[in-house]
């Protein structure tokens, strides 16, 4: 199997890619277009998404025992974090504030909001990487404060048997609910793998 | 619409908002629908009805209310944003792309984060 990977340079290089929500790195000396079958290593709830996205990329997914013996590469995907959604419709009050959490690389902004006219409500915390405060609702002066469901997935593509890591990446995505977020995160992560290069 | 009915609609909409924020989505939907019955052009009530129906997993109902909201207020980013998420949920990716494109078009500097989100979703969904 490993002979199918054609070295493209004598010295192995690594390319890094970091876009909004994604970070990945790949080996420069590997021709990813030669990878035609990929063994899938993920929990069942995630594996179906992974297989579907691989098929969309023109790659044949393998599961079960055959993945370890016949696949060109093995793709392991782990769900690192899931955060449920929170939505509020508010009139921004004086105490509306945005707090940047320090010492938390992958967490994000937290918003604390209060109702300006609905007395008796405790402040609300809306955590998440993307709290959106400026999406107005009509001309009412009220806004939607929303932190959508988020999923962070981490993946590694390795050469079977040898364990060489060919590609590694993470991807964060937001969705209406956790299932949508996870589906989008898996789709985004697999799109980062340069199968067509 | 009379002043009395406008007042009734506004009262129901305000109560719907409080119920929504208290996570009483069934009550919020009922109050918002009552407001819409009195004033069919109440975009805030349409939005809250859509958001509440979405929380109750009545996704098609939610989409219906949000579409009505953007007919009345085509530049309401929050409704286009909700629709983008809901169309992804229902796997209507063509409609999702259209919603995200509208969000990108409508976002100004004060909505920079929302614009980044919408662009990310467009990249993720790819071209048809």
| Largest interface: pair, residues per side | A-B, 35 and 35 residues
Report low-confidence residues of chain B grouped into runs of 5 or more: none
For the largest beta-sheet of chain B, the strand count, sense and barrel status come to: none
Contiguous helical run count of chain A: 3
Strand content of chain B: under 5%
Major sheet attributes of chain A: 7 strands, mixed
| Helix amount of chain B | over 70%
Q: What is the strand tally of chain B?
A: 0
Mean pLDDT of chain B: 91
Radius of gyration of chain B, in Å, reads 15 Å
Assembly status: heterodimer
Which term fits the overall shape of chain B?
elongated
What does this structure look like?
The complex is a heterodimer of chains A (197) and B (128). Chain A is α+β, with helices and mostly antiparallel strands. Helix content of chain A is 17%, strand content 41%. Chain A has 3 helices and 13 strands, in the order βββαβαβββββββββα. In chain A, α1 crosses α3. The N terminus of chain A is likely disordered. Chain B starts with a helix and ends with a helix. The mean pLDDT of chain B is 91. By secondary structure, chain B is mostly helical. The longest helix of chain B has 19 residues. Chain B is 79% helix and 0% strand.
Please give the structural blueprint.
The complex is a heterodimer of chains A (197) and B (128).
Chain A (H helix, E strand, L loop, with lengths): L13 E6 L2 E6 L9 E5 L2 H13 L3 E3 L3 H5 L2 E11 L2 E5 L6 E4 L8 E5 L10 E4 L4 E5 L6 E5 L1 E10 L6 E11 L2 H15 L5
Parallel strand pairs in A: 3-4, 3-5
Antiparallel strand pairs in A: 1-2, 2-13, 5-12, 6-11, 7-8, 8-9, 10-11, 12-13
Chain B lengths: L2 H19 L3 H14 L4 H13 L3 H14 L4 H13 L3 H14 L5 H14 L3
Offer a quick outline of the entry.
Chain A has three helices and 13 strands, in the order E-E-E-H-E-H-E-E-E-E-E-E-E-E-E-H. Chain A has 197 residues and is an alpha+beta fold. In chain A, a hairpin with a 6-residue loop joins strand 12 (149-158) and strand 13 (165-175).
């Amino acid at each position: 199997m490993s002979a199918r990977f054609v070295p493209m340079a004598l010295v192995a290089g690594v390319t890094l890619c970091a876009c909004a929500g994604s970070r990945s790195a790949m080996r420069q000396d590997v021709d990813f277009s030669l990878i035609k079958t990929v063994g899938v290593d993920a929990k069942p709830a995630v594996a179906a998404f992974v297989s579907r996205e691989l098929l969309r990329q023109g790659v044949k997914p393998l599961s079960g025992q055959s993945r370890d013996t016949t696949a060109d590469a093995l793709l392991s995907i782990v769900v690192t974090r899931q955060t449920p959604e929170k939505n509020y419709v508010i009139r921004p009050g004086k105490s509306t504030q945005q707090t940047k959490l320090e010492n938390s690389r992958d967490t994000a902004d937290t918003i604390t909001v209060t109702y300006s006219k609905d007395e008796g409500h405790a402040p609300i915390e809306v955590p998440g990487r993307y709290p959106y405060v400026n999406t107005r609702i009509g001309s009412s002066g009220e806004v939607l404060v929303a932190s959508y469901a988020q999923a962070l997935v981490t993946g590694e593509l390795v050469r079977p048997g040898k364990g060489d890591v060919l590609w590694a990446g993470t991807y964060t995505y937001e969705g209406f609910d956790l299932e949508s977020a996870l589906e989008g995160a898996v789709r985004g992560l697999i799109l980062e793998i340069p199968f067509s290069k | 619409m009379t002043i009395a009915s406008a007042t009734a609609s506004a009262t129901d909409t305000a109560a719907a908002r409080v119920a929504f924020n208290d996570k009483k989505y069934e009550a919020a939907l009922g109050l918002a629908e009552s407001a819409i019955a009195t004033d069919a052009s109440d975009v805030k009530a349409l939005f809250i009805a859509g958001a509440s129906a979405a929380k109750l997993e009545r996704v098609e109902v939610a989409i219906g209310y949000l579409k009505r909201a953007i007919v009345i207020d085509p530049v309401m980013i929050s409704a286009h944003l909700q629709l983008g998420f809901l169309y992804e949920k229902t796997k209507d990716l063509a409609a999702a792309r259209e919603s995200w494109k509208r969000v990108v078009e409508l976002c100004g500097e004060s909505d920079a984060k929302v614009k980044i989100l919408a662009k990310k979703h467009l990249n993720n969904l790819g071209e048809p």
